[in-house]
Specification:
The protein has 74 residues and is of the alpha+beta class. It has one helix spanning 2-23, and strands spanning 30-37, 41-45, 48-52, 56-64, 67-72.
């Protein structure tokens, strides 16, 4: 029983660390794609994830309203 409780404590600590990490995501963070963003690429900003189904050229990716969005390239 003690081992089971210790495992639960470790699991909960891990969840707390994940929440702390995800809350530190800078909402102004961007990914700038200089050349090509290939199809089937997975991106993530913390817990926010997106898989791109088609190629994109010269784009930026950023979080807009809690969604990874394609933005104009600067």
């Amino acid at each position: 029983m003690k081992k089971n409780i210790e495992e639960k404590i470790i699991s909960i600590k891990h969840q707390i660390n994940q929440i702390k990490y995800n809350s530190k995501i800078n909402p102004k963070a961007k990914i700038q794609v200089k050349d090509k963003l290939f199809s089937n690429v997975h991106t993530s900003f913390g817990n926010f994830q997106r898989k791109f189904s088609k190629e994109e050229i010269h784009v930026r990716l950023g979080l807009v309203n809690s969604k990874i969005t394609i933005l104009p390239y600067d």
